[in-house]
Automatic annotation (TrEMBL):
NCBIfam families: glycerol3P_GlpB, PRK05329.2-3. Coiled coil: none annotated. Residues 3-404 form the FAD-dependent oxidoreductase 2 FAD-binding domain. Pfam families: FAD_binding_2. This is Glycerol-3-phosphate dehydrogenase subunit B. It comes from Trueperella bonasi. SUPFAM superfamilies: FAD/NAD(P)-binding domain. The keyword DNA repair does not apply.
């Protein structure tokens, strides 16, 4: 089958690769590189109950979640598809620890502790467990890692009995910069862009040796290279547990996932059209027969047997709010579902979150088990499969389910197309 995937985030890249592995002819059309650079680099399946308590077994808890929230995407995706998707990503990238089915606790960019299903191997020693001692090591030239705040918050977490203290080391990624980005540090540690990889790694090791105490796990910002070579060398040289913890975007761990999946698409001959967008379509009855794709100022008509729509939601512009306040999906004019607000007075820097009594950030497309968008309970098109954050009915940022929805819906769409 000739399939076009719209979008190159986690759901789009995963869908394209899964479909290609099934033997389909697959291309990706995307305006940009997707949202993985904004992610923490962990895999969230289902982390928090609505009462604020952490979830220990996320796959087992999905059944109860969909009973409480029947509009949730997991109701049609199913827990087995979510687990299959997470297993698939762990196997394809080689970046992650084993998908045990049990959540672990990991520090965030400010030291708050949260549950997640899988962490990257470079983060494994950071897992928050009773009795651990942490040395949170900030870098003077990297401002997006408040070491003392992180250490204080880790030490006071109610989820485990741990100790944490903070130090700040002096390491220049690129002279004479006094304030370098995470990307610059990653390049320096990798030794790319003309930067001194061995020298930067040695500088971190030497600065930490005099600060470490026996039995401590060293926590560093997650900027230790786009490959894991620098991390491995630093951990070996220090002879102690070393771990990365997430920092604000751009996310180096997220970039690792993106790079691994993008490289797989190249190997499997999946074409990615960047700086391109779908501006229209043609339909033959209940089927999408072609997409209108704009590239470099010209519009071409691309014939398709099926479409996987992974363009994201409100945050990506796939779902738009016009000057009259109308909220709609921009390409196919798909009907949307909305969630009731958690806070009627919620606002962001761009204005109200609640419009006409509905939470605009909880909106999205409702789908059936084949990921086909529904209108009044029936598929709008028989060959248009919606995946990822385009799906409505969930708050992945609060319940921590984003990667589970992305990967599970990719599996469900792939299964549906395999049957066809």
């Amino acid at each position: 089958m000739r399939i076009i995937v719209i979008g190159a985030g986690l759901a789009g890249l995963a869908s394209a690769l899964m479909l290609r592995e099934d033997g389909h002819d697959v291309d990706i059309v995307t305006r940009g590189i997707g949202g993985l650079g904004l992610s923490s680099g962990t895999l969230d399946v289902y982390g928090w109950h609505s009462d604020g308590q952490p979830i220990k077994e996320p796959y087992a808890a999905i059944d109860q979640l969909v009973k409480e929230q029947p509009e949730h995407p997991y109701a049609t995706i199913g827990a087995d598809a979510v687990r299959e998707g997470v297993d698939w990503l762990c196997e394809r990238t080689g970046l992650f620890t084993q998908n045990s089915g049990t959540n672990v606790l990991i520090p965030t960019a400010i030291g708050a502790v949260r549950p997640t299903a899988c962490v990257q191997n470079t983060m494994l020693p950071a897992l928050v467990e009773d009795g651990k001692k942490y040395l949170v090591a900030g870098i003077k030239q990297f401002r997006d890692f408040p070491a003392q705040l992180i250490a204080d918050n880790i030490a006071r977490t109610p989820l485990a009995q741990v100790e944490a203290r903070a130090v700040t080391i002096d390491v220049q990624a690129r002279r004479p910069e006094a304030d370098s980005t995470g990307t610059t540090f990653a390049r320096a540690l990798d030794g790319t862009a003309g930067l001194d990889g061995p020298g930067t790694r040695d500088a971190i090791v030497e600065a930490l040796r005099s600060e470490m105490r026996e039995g401590e796990t060293v926590l560093l910002p997650a900027i230790l290279g786009f490959s894991t070579d620098a991390y491995n060398e630093i951990a070996e040289e220090l002879g102690a547990p070393v771990a990365e913890i997430p920092v604000p975007p751009p996310s180096i761990p997220g970039r690792r996932i993106n790079d691994a999946l993008t490289e797989e698409t190249r190997k499997k001959r999946v074409d990615i059209s960047l700086n391109a967008q779908v501006v229209g379509f043609e339909a033959d009855g209940s089927r999408v027969s072609a997409l209108k794709v704009q590239r470099a100022g010209r519009i071409t008509t691309e014939k398709v047997d099926a479409v996987v729509y992974a363009g994201g939601g409100l945050e990506s512009g796939t779902i738009e709010r016009d000057s009259y306040g109308h909220i709609g999906e921009r390409i196919f004019d798909l009907p949307l579902i909305f969630m009731d607000p958690e806070d009627e007075d919620a606002r962001t820097v761009t204005g109200a979150v609640v419009v006409d009594g509905k939470d605009i950030f909880g909106c999205g497309v409702k789908v059936d088990a084949q990921m086909l968008p529904l209108a009044e309970g029936k598929p709008v098109y028989d060959n248009l499969h919606c995946v990822g954050s385009l799906l409505g009915g969930a708050r992945p940022w609060t319940e921590k389910s984003g990667e589970g929805i992305a990967l599970g819906s990719a599996v469900a769409a792939t299964r549906a197309l395999k049957k066809n």
